[in-house]
Amino acid sequence: MVMACRVINKRRHMGLQQLSSFAGTGRTFLGPLKLSKFIIDAECHESVLISSTVRLLESLDLTSAVGQLLNEAVQAQNNTYKTGTSTLLFLIGAWSSAAEECLHLGVPISLIVSAMSEGLNSCIEEVVSLQVPVYNVFDQIDNTKTFSGVETSSVSLCPFLQIPSDTGLQKEHDLKDVASPSLTFYNLSGIPVRSPKLFRSQAEVEADKNTLQNPQSLQNSLLTGSRYGKSILIHSRHFNRTDNNQWINKPDGFLEQHGGATPNTYRCSDLVELEMGLSHGDHHSMKLVDEAVRLQYQNASMQQGSRMMPFRFDISRIFTCCLPGVPESFSCVCPGFITVISISNTTLIKELQNQPIRILLIEGDLTEKYRHLGFNKATNINTVLESMRVQQDTTEELWTNYVLQVLIKFNVNLVLVQGNVSEHLTEKCIHTKRLVLGSVNSSVMQAFAEASGAVQVTYITQVNENCVGSGVSVTFWRSIPSDVIDRINVITIVIKTEGINLVTVVLTSPVTAQMQTKEDRFWTCAYRLYYALEEQKVFLGGGAVEFLCLSHLQILAEQSLSKRNYVCSGWLPDTSSWLASSLALYRSTVLKCLANGWHKYLSTLIYNTASCSSEFEASTFIQQRLQNATDSGSPSSYILNEYSKLNSGIFNSGISNKLEQIPSIYDVVIPKTEAWRRALDLVLLVLQTDSEIITGLGHRQLNSQETEGFLFL
What we know:
GROEL, domain 1; GroEL; 6-stranded mixed β-sheet; elongated; disordered C terminus
């Protein structure tokens, strides 16, 4: 689909320019406040609503070599981690521009590759200091508070990247916005005030209602800024400030703060805090993830009893069932397998829901033509009939009757098939009060095999008594209004058995165009939590690690610049190697260009979260923070101290004992760093393999039409 076009200069690197153009289409997806896009087909004028990088690339024309490489990189990130694709796409564009700038400045390609790779590896090593260990989050799961979902999205930036109200960098209309209860507020004088609690008593809720109903109270509230004002996201209670503090990253990964009477070790050991930090403002999706995790935990507790092993979140046993056109209130999490079937099966389900069900599991297809790969019919036998159609119908009918005989013999009422199912067989089974479902996920098959005692088979001829499971129930899921059922033309059923380790998340939306977006957002939150628990560590989020990378690269660039001056002056004795001396000369230039990519990332992130009216203002604010970090002598300590400093300022009013009510901002470690690596790998691959570079005019003068073209997306 034609999305946009950009002028391409044929005298510069074509591949890098194309990467930058493709990446520029996804700038608004960076950060928690993603803006949806309408993709319009220029030929048939059809449109689709998208809100993610993956769906964007699915709608663009990526037939070029560069486009295909870009799509492969994004798909690999999404298929593995389900998160980090927006960061990946943006950095591809930013670092493509950086590499192109290095070429324009005359830096050899080999040195660009070497210096950029070295710079990114150094950044990944540096940000280890911002990792927070995660462990034992399930130890108190029965006694802890549950996740409190907030319908509105909140701004997710690290505290020192929030724009204070007295800097003049705010949008005026931001001061009128009602912020999320999970945020800390600053009044118009820049003074932090206590935010409404995320977990409140009924008395406090009623008091809030009375305040809003009383005009005088509401006016006082507005004047003090305690309920309305610029939203500033607070940060982890694990980074409290003490005087003259120093932050030490211990060998075991814990962040330790010295300077007080007793050193404190900081970590995340609370499930709700971890979920809030990883939600990035999407509290509705994370609330569903939390309910799914707790259902899994309860099931594991019942199965193992007092000798329960350490619980492990199994994301492979979580599934989604999307119901477009159904009101939002029907979204929920349920044990068992929930799926949709044709409304014509209503009578069949009514027959099955009041009787015990025996189940059969088929791994392959359930069709007449599905056979073992080694099976071949005899080649020297020809069957001659007046009509080939009669032969096909006869064969299909004979096979269908055989399958029905097998199902009747073993009293099977429910058949789950991993592959395709013959439509003729499905219709025949309905008439004999048997339900056949195809295209069932392999993990669902395995879950029913474990819980019902069934054994999965590949062919219907392999079925015997030992392969059939029992104890399964089939019922209608919920009572959906009849007008909604008539509109969506399907019914929803739940299939389960006692002790099954299977959870289905039902996602609904009255707007069909938003259904895919809701499912994508749910899986993003689920995989963030999954990888945080698997790795047992998270980053401080909201731009903190990217800010540290930017600061670190600038320091490296300055050090390289000093070294280059020594090389040019002949002070360094080891200048015999051309590569070593050239790298010393150009390293500073390349690292600065690489750092500019991080600067663009942070500027766009702050601008997208509505903290600034322009990216230029955001860039100015970042530059001020960078100067402060450089002056501190240790950027990582500066970041941690800023966290603790703001916490200290917010909680000086005698409420420091209630820090557990305040959410943090976290990022997963491996998905984020892998997105960085993939972005740079793709840029360097295109840089080294693209041959469409015109280095000079040569013996003829190129006109403007030959030196400039259009890239259509």
